[in-house]
Amino acid sequence: MPALSLLYDRIRTEEKVLINSAEKKGVLLKPIDAKELHLTITDFSKERDLFGDVALERCVSHFRGLHLTAALESKGITVVNSYPVSSICGNKMLTSIVLAKNGIPTPKTIVAFTKDEAMRAAEELGFPCVIKPVFGSWGRLIAPLKDRETAQAILEHREEMGNPLYQIYYIQEMIKRPPRDIRTVVVGEEIAASIYRYSAPEDWRTNIARGGRAEVCKLRDEDAEIILRAAKAVGGGVLGVDAMEREEGIVIHEVNSTVEFKGAMSVSEVDIPGRIIEYALNLVKR
């Protein structure tokens, strides 16, 4: 019987349902708290058996999960998602580059490395536009730059924060869209579920974690094709592909490598955790 492990640093709804799904299928899934691990990275045979045939990396901390993935892959352990995929998806700039290079519709994006150049970038894109941190989730530190005065205040604040990552100014055009976006859970080469995420009252962001609500989305064939191309472009696996609607068609603005699917699960009849467990088992069989 194949053995799987689930790597976590916080047990959320998604981790609970993955554990329950594996148990119902009679699959051995060992939960492992990453906070309680230390790994010998200079001995490639040591600790390998602890993680089973495939490890599902589900850490909330991107950098913890990324480095843990690299350590396990060095020992020959298959991790979902792989280090290259997690590295690309965890960095918004790298994601934008990969999407653009593969001809996938994505918002026009400019990156700058000083406050003054960031202002010039915002003026080039035109107000309103959006500034985002290159790392981060749940819509944290994303801000609309509504005009030059607002941009100046936000950029000065970023400059004073002292974190060098916040001096990478990642600025995107503001897409004219409905008050919602589309979150699609992709498992392997298939779409498991797709939902609309509506903004919470008095918030322009659509994150379910910020109080947004979910509704089933029936994708058009052309939109499904773009979403699957985006998942393939970043390397594939178990992903959350986020898209926005515009008159010319959807644009992909983010791909998540540790996808939260509680919102999709709440409105969809699809067994998302079951699909993920089956995907991991199929990797063992290859």
Q: State which percent range the strand residues make up.
A: 15-25%
Indicate the CATH topology of the largest domain.
D-amino Acid Aminotransferase, Chain A, domain 1
Q: What strand order characterises the main sheet? A: 11-10-9-12-13
As a whole number of angstroms, the C-alpha radius of gyration is 20 Å
Order of helices and strands: EHEEHEHHEHEEHEEEEHEEHH
Description of the molecule:
The structure is a single chain. With 286 residues, this protein is α+β, with helices and mostly antiparallel strands. It folds into 3 domains: 3-88, Rossmann fold, CATH 3.40.50; 108-173, ATP-grasp fold, A domain (Dna Ligase, domain 1); 176-270 and 279-285, D-amino Acid Aminotransferase, Chain A, domain 1 (2-Layer Sandwich). It has helices at residues 13-24, 62-74, 83-89, 92-101, 115-125, 148-160, 221-234, 262-267, 272-285, and strands spanning 3-8, 28-33, 54-57, 78-80, 109-112, 129-132, 143-145, 169-173, 180-187, 190-198, 213-216, 238-244, 251-256. It has a 5-stranded antiparallel beta sheet with strand order 11-10-9-12-13. A 4-stranded parallel beta sheet has the order 2-1-3-4, sandwiched between helices. A 4-stranded antiparallel beta sheet has the order 5-8-6-7, with helices on both faces. Helix 1 (13-24) crosses helix 9 and helix 5 (115-125) runs antiparallel to helix 6. The protein is globular, with a radius of gyration of 20 Å.
Summarize the structure in short.
The chain is of the alpha+beta class and 286 residues long. The protein has 9 helices and 13 strands. Strand 1, helix 1 and strand 2 form a beta-alpha-beta unit.
